[in-house]
Amino acid sequence: MESLNQIINRIKLYIKVTHIGDIARRYFVKNGMDGSMTVLGIILGSWAAKVEDPYVIVMAGFGACLAMGVSGLFGAYITEKAERKRIIKDLEESILSDLDGSLQQNASEFVPALAALVDGLSPSLTATVSLIPFIMSMIGLLSIWDSYVISMILTFATLFALGLFLGRVARERMWLYGLQMVAAGAVITLIVYVLGGF
Amino acid sequence: MQHSVRRLVLDVLKLRDPPLTEFASTLCSLPSIEGVKVSLVEIDQNTESVKVTIEGNDINLEDVKKLMKDHGAVIHSIDEVLVQKTPSDKP
Questions:
Q1: Which helix (H) or strand (E) element contains residue B74?
Q2: What is the distance in angstroms between the Cα of A102 and the nearest Cα belonging to chain B?
Q3: B35-74 per-position pLDDT tens digit
């Protein structure tokens, strides 16, 4: 029976051998942004339609979260599994030997699950941040219109934080990346504003 | 009369991951091995040809082969072997 420390070291080795860290980082930011933008669309649409029941927004938001999460989970798992099978076959050809039971083979079986978790959980995580004010409104801690404002602020803050993270990855000006992400949110806001006629 | 393998020099083809340091450390984790030297001979897109020098007391080649296979490496040839009588057998 492996100790927790051994399991963690093994996972670290699998991540290193398969270089899944870079891919998981992309999955996290891309799908995290998807989650924020989707909920932003729901919030803006609800605002335009003058929805005053926070329960409707929370359920619509979590419904979208769940769909994105399940889609990410299965999509990333199957995609990554196929990619890893191909890589293993290429490596087997390079080394002129099978890799059954090897570190590379075991790592290739593990990483699709990791990619699926990141891909599935990141949109749910970012979307939940945006929905917190509406949950507070449901239990009477905030008025619905305050919830809209706070939720918008939280969503743009999440987008900015994802941008900062990307800026850190790129080792460039972090705030510039943050602003680019916020600009994407602003575009959605503008479109809903034009379509919905605030 | 008992003999033990004290030194092996192997020509090995390994995948680029895990890198040389980890590959050498893993080999060194075998109980009969006291030291490992890995020298890069040639590098390719996915593979590395390396010369592996293993020193120890009663080195088991089958254990070495299995550990290497588990880490995506195959032995091409055994280039050098040093076998010595075990201390208990010496007069």
A1: strand B73-85
A2: 4
A3: 999 999 999 888 999 999 999 988 999 999 999 988 889 9
Count of residues in chain B:
91
- For the question of whether the overall pTM of this predicted structure is more than 0.90, the answer is no
* A46 touches A190 (CB < 8 A): no
Alpha helices in chain B (DSSP H): 20-28, 61-70
ipTM confidence: 0.71
Is B17 in CB contact (< 8 Å) with chain A?
yes
The domains of chain B, with CATH numbers, are 3-89 (3.30.70.1340)
Cα A139 → chain centroid: 27
What values do phi and psi take at A143, rounded to 5? -80, 160
8 A C-beta contact, residue B3 and residue B83 = yes
B54: tokens are 């293993």
**Residue whose C-alpha is closest to residue B48's, from B79, B22, B88, B18:** B18
Q: Which residue of B has its CA nearest to A13?
A: B18
Interface of A with B in 1-20 (CB under 8 A): 13, 16-19
